[in-house]
Amino acid sequence: PEDRSPAADPVDTHCPYCSLQCGMTLRPVPQGAGPDGGPDGGPGSGPGGVEVLERTAFPVNRGALCGKGRTAPAVLSSRVRLTEPLVRRPDSGRLEPATWEEALDRIAESLAATGRAHGRDAVGVFGGGGLTNEKAYALGKFARVVLGTSQIDYNGRFCMSSAAAAHQRAFGLDRGLPFPLADVARTGCVILVGSNLAETMPPALRYLTELKESGGRLIVVDPRRTRTAEQADLHLAPRPGTDLALALGLLHLVVAEGRVDEEFVERRTSGWPEARAAAMAHWPELVERITGVPVPELRAAVAMFCDAENAMVLTARGPEQQSKGTDTVGAWINLCLATGRAGRPLSGYGCLTGQGNGQGGREHGQKADQLPGYRKLADPAARAHVAAVWGVEPDALPGPGRSAYELLDALGQDVRALLLMGSNPLVSAPRAAHVEARLRSLDFLAVADVVLSETAALADVVLPVAQWAEETGTMTNLEGRVILRRAALTPPPGVRTDLWVLGGLAARLGWEKGFPADAEEVFEELRRASAGGPADYSGITYRRIAEEDGVFWPCPESADGAGPHPGTPRLFLDRFATDDGRARFVPVGHRPAAEEPDAEYPVVLTTGRVLAQYQSGAQTRRVTELNEAAPAPYVQLHPLLAERLGADEGAPIAVVSRRGRAVAPARISRDIRPDTVFMPFHWAGPGRANTVTNPALDPVSRMPEFKVCAVRLEVAAEA
Ligand code: SF4
C-alpha cells in the first residue's frame, strides 16, 4: 500500500461524493473522536479519524457543504467497513477472511482460467464513476493490456452518457460544463432541465439564487415540483419522457416569433434547415398534447429565454436517462444554437454530471469505446499513440466492448468472470432483479469496495480498499476542472489501494512492465497517454493543481518555451471542436418512451435521488445522520391517484412493472403529476426501485431508460 503517515496538519481536499467535488479541509482527530460511524457500526474502529473544516478558498462551493460531505468521515471509521480480504470457502459457501496473497492469487487464477477456457472476452471489468482519474486509467489499461479483454465499461454509462453523446455530436467534444459553474450566476436566464440540484448538489443552488438576485430568470423543467422547481420563475411540468417534444415546441416558437439569431446560425453552425424543419413539425398545440404543458407556458418560456441577453440550458439525468436521451439533449442544444446561446461567454449548453468523477472516469479509458485522453478506441491513430505509451503493439489492443447494461446482461453467458471496482449494480442497474440473477450466474466474481455492498456480498473474493481520505488522486469535476484529493490518513492495516490491487494482479497475470501503485506516477503516465487527445491533460501536474486549486482541461504541455498553458475554463469561444469549427444542428423528432402507459400498466414511474443519500447508498446508508434523515424508500404520488387507489399516507404501495415489483410507503403530495409516481433508487430489498425500471437503451449512448417506465399500483399487504 501507499506508505503515507497520517498528516499532522489539516489537509485540503475534496468531498468523496458528487461531481461538484466540493473543497473541504480535513483535520486529523484522535481515534474515536470522529463522527458516528453508522447504524451498524460506531466510531473509532478505524485508524483514527478526521473532521471536516470549511474551505472557502475553493471557488466552486466556497466552503458550503451538504450533509453528505459534512458526514463523509463517518464511513472511514465505521465498524462495517471492510478491513481484510474475504474469500468464499467451498465447504461453507461463506465469505471468510483470507490473506491478501490468497485473495489476489485466487482472482488472478480465476481470471486467467476463464480466459483460457472461454477466450479473453469471457473476462469482464466493471468500473465506477467515483474512481479517481488514476484508477480509471489503470483499470482501462489493465483490462486491455493485461487481460486483453474488450469487455470493460463503468456505471458512468448510467450517469451522463446521453449528454456526452449529444455534446460530441453537436460540438465535437464532450465536457459536462464548457464554462465554470460560477458563470451560471452571471447569465440572464437558465433553463434547468431534469435536475433537482437543491437536493443532489445543494451548494450549487447559490448560483441560481445569485442569478435571480441580479435580475436573471430561472425556468425549471421537471414533472415534479421539487425544492429546485420551487425556486423557479416558471416551472414546466411535462409528462416524463416528453421533454424532447417540449424543446422542439420551444424551438418552433423561437422560429415563429422571429427570435432566431440568424447571424450566429449562419456564421457558426451547420445543419439548420433540417433542424428547423423538424421543429416546425412540432407546433405548440401538438406539443401541449404530448407534454401536458399549456401553450401559454411555452410562450412564456420562450419570452424569458430570448429576452435575456445571455442564456443557458443545463440538463441532468431527467432528459438524459431515456431511450431517446441523446436526441432529447440534442433538441435542447438545438434551442441554444438557434438563439445564438453557445460559443460565447455567459451563454451555452451544459450538463450537470452526477458522479464525482463521471467526467474523468470516461475520459481515461474505463468506457467500452474509449482510450485515455478521450480518444476513440476504434481510431487507428489513437490506438497507436496509447499503445506506444503502454509499450504494446496497437494490434494487441482489443476493440470496443459492450456498454454497461449489455455487459451486465451478458454475465454468466458470454462473460463468465468479472472484476468489479467502485460500483454496486445490484442496486443501481435497471431491471435489477435480472442483473442480480446474472451476477449470481457468473463462474467467478471479484469485488473491490470499502464496505460489503449488496453486490460484494455475492462475490467469490472481496478486496477491502482504501477510501477517499486515505489515498491521493485526481478527479475531474462537472466543469472539467481537474482537482487533487489528498491523503489525510493511513488506511487500516489490512486495507490496500485499488492501484496496488491492480499492480498485484498484473504481476500475477504475467505483466512485467510494472503497474505503479503511486498515484502521481500513474498520473504522469496518464499525461503522456492523453497528450494530443481531446481531453489533453499533458500540461497538468500535481504541483500545478495544488498551486492553482484545479486546472481545466484541455491543458496541453506548451512547446517551444511558450510557458505553461493556462488551461481552458471556457470552451468553443472561437470555434467548436468539429472538423469545420461549426456546431452541428441535428434534426430530431419526438418519439414515445420504450414503454408507454397502457390499460395494464397505466401510470408512469420516474426515479431519482434524495438529499441525504447518494447513488446506490453503499456509503451514505451507513452514516447515522443521513440514515435518520432518509431511512427508507417511498412512493410519491398525487392525492388523486392515492384516492383512486384507496391509499392513505404511509400505506404500503406496490409499484409493479413487467420486470418486477417494489414496495414502499405512500408519500402523498401535490408536487407530482397525477399520472406519475416517483421513487428514489438508493435502497436494496423490497423497496428497490430499479427492480421495476426499464433497461431499454438509447441507440447512441446506450443509456438505459431509468426515468420512464409503465407501472400499475397496488396497496400491498406490507411495505
Ligand atoms: Fe459532496 Fe456533492 Fe454535497 Fe458537495 S454537494 S458536499 S460534493 S455530496
From TrEMBL:
Biased composition (Gly residues): 34-49
InterPro entries in the cross-refs: Asp_de-COase-like_dom_sf, MoPterin_dinucl-bd_dom, Mopterin_OxRdtase, Mopterin_OxRdtase_4Fe-4S_dom, Prok_molybdopt-oxidoreductase
Key words, A-Z: 4Fe-4S, Iron, Iron-sulfur, Metal-binding
Chain segments carrying region Disordered: 29-51
Pfam short name (any one): Molydop_binding
Domain 4Fe-4S Mo/W bis-MGD-type: 8-78
Region forming the signal peptide: none
Protein name: Molybdopterin oxidoreductase family protein
Organism listed in the record: Streptomyces luomodiensis
